[in-house]
Structure formats: structure tokens, C-alpha cells
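Researcher: Let's do a round of design. I'm pasting the C-alpha cells now; please hold your answer until I've finished.
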């Protein structure tokens, strides 16, 4: 039996695309191995959102060199967003002559063909096609999903927003929505297979259908139709752009028990000047009004966000506005990043780049403030009832997850079933975990 090993970097989209790569490899008779040294095919599914991601990936690809030296037939492929960048394929090959196949973020589903061609010709293959859009062909590809309970489902690809710091629109191309029937079919199959949490994926799910590919079905319609499917499941989605999150979507979320009451709503910054320079198309005030609306419609909502500190030109005062904003909103979780210059983006050329020391100071400060907010909010959950899904059990008890993704630990006092939802009374918050008892 031949073995494969896949390194995955970056977002949920990549995690899901790795499931597709795994499907393609398994269809060809390869088996997952737990050590890269035993692999006949190694794939790097890459990310380029920040420079740190690229540096890490380059280091990991470099580490394959001595392994391949002892195993000449090993096939090394690099794909995904980092590979999709201009001139990257030839640069990669120059730097790492042992790389055999390079293909982009929009050609994942063709990996099988590339592999067949490589095996036949044994010649370096550059299959990065910048003008190629994603052509979803789900019927032909068998996803090998990593987890038996949680499933990702793509609803759209690409992004039209061109936030000035972001490389995604350049590597993933324009927005393209999948046909609603294909999505319904996939979700129904997953529910029948026993998946319990379905997460709809897209760079900007709220603009689903705006490309005219869905016969008039918008994101609110899609969400509502899926939430009405039979079965015991929970529906989530990401990522939402604040400028496109409609009242209709909030209403659908609020009125459907199957839709998770947790929402990721990246704000990026708290200053209107910075938001404008980022091309985010909303003001701090509009964002806060949206948050109010969401909290009024769903008082139990848990919110999370993405924030960039040190965007070009961000002054201390403007940074303080981000601090004020996170204190106001009260996110359960925030992913905080230092601005990283990305080649080809508009912000790359902006003057007033913020020194690294200032960025470091801001990120440490903000992480600390956010940590305190999170701790307070999770402590406040003590005494509430949370719907959780049991993931696993060990000697001490059951391990579950709340809708916001937080781990909830349950004792073994009552017999519970893995893969079932339970309402749980939260009794404590300790060492970053919620503790509770199932209400039976
Ligand atoms: N530098 C730092 N963070 C970035 N993000 C996107 N581009 C950059 C960049 N150039 C962050 C944004 C986005 C998240 C996925 O990554 O916060 O929401
Ligand atoms: Fe990047 Fe902005 Fe698109 Fe998100 S919405 S992928 S941050 S360009």
C-alpha cells in the first residue's frame, strides 16, 4: 500500500480542501500515514495570509529535502494560496528542486490528474493557472472528512472585497457561488451520514448569490432552507462581512433553533480612518449598531472577531479606538494579528508602515485585554444552560463543545452518548474550560 501525508496551513477553507486532496489520494489507493517519512506522496496545502505563514511553510518544505534524498520516488506537491501567487511556482522550484508538482488554490480538484501525469512523465509540473476559476465538481470527488461529527460545506469561493491588506482576492479570484441544489444535496447526505454540525464556508458568505449563479437564492434563503431540513443537526457559517450581514439573515438566525447562536464577525479595526484605509466599507458606528441589532435579536449570542493591529498609518489614538471597541462589543473570542505586508496588495505601497516594535506592543496589549474580557464572559456563563455536542469521553468524563466552540467538560454521573446534543447546566469555569452537568 502506498502512503500519503498532507501538511495543512491556514483557514477552514484549506482544512476542507485538504479533505478533498485526501479523497483524491484515497481514490487512487493511497493510505494516510502518520509519519511523513513513510509517505510516497507529500502535499503542502499552503496559506499566504501573513508572512509568518509563508516562512513556516518554507521551513517545513525545506525539511523534506533530507527525507527525499533517502527516498527518491517520494512525490512532493505544493498547492493552495501560497503556490497561487505570481511567479511562486518557479521560485519554489528554484529554491526546492525536489518539489515535483505545484498547483494553485483554484485547481485542487484536479490534483488526481496532475498526479497521474507526473507518474507517467516524471517531470516537474507547474499547474498554477491564474485565470482559472473554481469549477465545483463535487459528484466526482470523494471528500475524506477528518471528523465524523463536524462537516464543512463550501457554498462559495473567492472574494470580491479587496480589503487593502488582504491577498485572498488575488489568489482565490472572484466570488463564485455554488448552485443551491448542489449544496442542499451535499448537506442532506451529510445529515443522513450522521454529521451533527454543518458549517457553511465562504470568504464572505453574506454575498452568496450576488454573482447571479443561484437563481435568486440569497444567503438568508439558503440558510433558512437548510435549517428546515429534517434531522438533528446544528448549522453554522463563516465568514460574514459586516457590510453584507442583512436584517433578513439576523431574522433567520434568530428564528431557527438549528442555527448556532454564535457568530464570527471580523471588525479588523476600531477607527473609522483605519477602516476606510482598509476598504472595509463600514464605520465603527455602523458596526456597533449591527452588533446591537444582533444582540437584541439573539440575547444569548456569542461573538468572535478578527482584528489587525498596526495597519499602515494607525496612530496610538486610532489603536485605542480598537481597544474601546472590543470593550464595548464583548467578544467571547478574538483572533488578533499584526499587520503583515502582502505583495501586490494596496496597503503594501502605503506610507507610514508601523514599526514592528509598535505592532508587537499593540498585539500584546490587545491580547491581554481580550483575554480578560473572554475570562469574564466565560465566568458569566456559569449558571446558564448551554447546548453542547459530546465529542469524546475519557476516564474522567465526557468532552463536549458549546456552540461557540468552547470545550465543556462533563462528569460521568450520567450515561451520555458521543455525537448527541445535550442541554448542559454550566457549573464552573476552570483553566479555560467550562464544566457542567447534562440536564436529562
Ligand atoms: N496581515 C495581517 N492579518 C491579515 N488578515 C488578512 N490579511 C492580513 C494581513 N495582511 C487577517 C484578517 C482576516 C483574517 C483571516 O486574517 O483579520 O479577517
Ligand atoms: Fe480578505 Fe477582505 Fe475578502 Fe476577507 S473580505 S477574504 S479580509 S479581502
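Researcher: That's everything. Go ahead.
Model: Designed sequence:
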Amino acid at each position: 500500500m502506498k502512503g500519503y501525508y498532507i501538511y495543512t496551513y491556514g483557514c477552514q477553507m484549506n482544512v476542507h480542501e485538504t479533505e478533498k486532496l485526501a479523497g483524491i489520494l484515497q481514490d487512487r489507493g493511497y493510505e494516510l500515514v502518520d509519519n511523513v517519512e513513510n509517505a510516497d506522496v507529500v502535499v503542502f496545502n499552503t496559506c499566504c495570509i501573513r508572512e509568518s505563514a509563508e516562512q513556516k511553510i518554507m521551513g517545513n518544505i525545506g525539511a523534506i529535502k533530507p527525507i527525499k534524498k533517502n527516498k527518491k520516488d517520494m512525490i512532493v506537491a505544493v498547492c493552495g494560496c501560497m503556490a497561487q501567487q505570481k511567479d511562486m511556482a518557479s521560485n519554489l522550484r528554484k529554491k526546492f528542486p525536489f518539489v515535483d508538482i505545484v498547483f494553485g488554490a483554484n485547481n485542487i480538484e484536479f490534483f488526481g490528474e496532475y498526479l497521474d501525469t507526473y507518474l507517467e512523465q516524471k517531470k516537474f509540473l507547474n499547474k498554477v493557472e491564474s485565470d482559472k476559476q473554481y469549477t465545483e465538481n463535487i459528484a466526482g470527488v470523494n471528500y475524506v472528512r477528518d471528523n465524523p461529527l463536524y462537516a464543512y460545506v463550501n457554498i462559495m469561493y473567492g472574494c470580491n472585497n479587496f480589503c487593502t491588506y488582504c491577498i485572498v482576492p488575488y489568489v482565490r479570484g472572484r466570488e463564485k457561488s455554488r448552485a443551491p441544489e448542489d449544496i442542499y444535496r451535499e448537506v442532506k447526505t451529510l445529515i443522513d451520514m450522521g454529521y451533527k454540525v454543518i458549517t457553511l464556508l465562504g470568504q464572505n458568505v453574506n454575498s452568496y448569490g450576488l454573482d447571479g449563479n443561484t437563481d435568486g437564492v440569497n444567503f438568508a434563503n439558503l440558510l433558512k432552507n437548510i435549517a428546515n431540513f429534517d434531522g438533528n443537526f446544528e448549522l453554522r457559517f463563516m465568514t460574514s462581512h459586516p457590510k453584507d450581514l442583512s436584517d433578513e439573515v439576523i431574522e433567520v438566525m434568530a428564528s431557527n433553533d438549528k442555527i448556532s447562536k454564535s457568530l464570527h464577525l471580523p471588525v479588523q479595526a476600531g477607527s473609522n480612518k483605519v477602516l476606510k484605509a482598509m476598504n472595509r466599507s463600514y464605520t465603527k458606528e455602523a458596526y456597533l449598531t449591527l452588533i446591537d441589532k444582533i444582540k437584541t435579536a439573539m440575547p444569548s449570542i456569542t461573538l468572535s472577531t478578527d482584528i489587525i493591529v498596526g495597519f499602515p498609518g494607525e496612530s496610538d489614538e486610532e489603536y485605542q479606538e480598537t481597544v474601546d471597541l472590543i470593550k464595548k462589543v464583548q467578544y467571547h473570542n478574538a483572533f488578533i494579528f499584526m499587520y503583515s505586508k502582502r505583495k501586490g496588495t494596496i496597503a503594501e505601497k502605503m506610507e507610514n508602515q508601523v514599526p514592528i516594535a509598535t505592532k508587537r506592543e499593540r498585539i500584546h496589549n490587545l491580547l491581554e485585554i481580550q483575554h480578560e474580557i473572554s475570562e469574564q464572559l466565560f465566568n458569566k456563563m456559569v449558571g446558564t444552560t448551554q447546548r453542547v455536542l459530546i465529542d469524546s469521553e475519557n476516564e474522567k468524563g465526557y468532552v463536549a463543545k458549546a456552540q461557540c466552540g468552547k470545550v465543556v467538560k462533563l462528569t460521568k454521573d450520567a450515561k451520555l452518548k458521543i455525537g448527541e446534543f445535550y442541554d448542559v447546566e454550566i457549573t464552573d469555569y476552570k483553566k479555560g474550560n467550562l464544566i457542567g452537568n447534562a440536564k436529562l
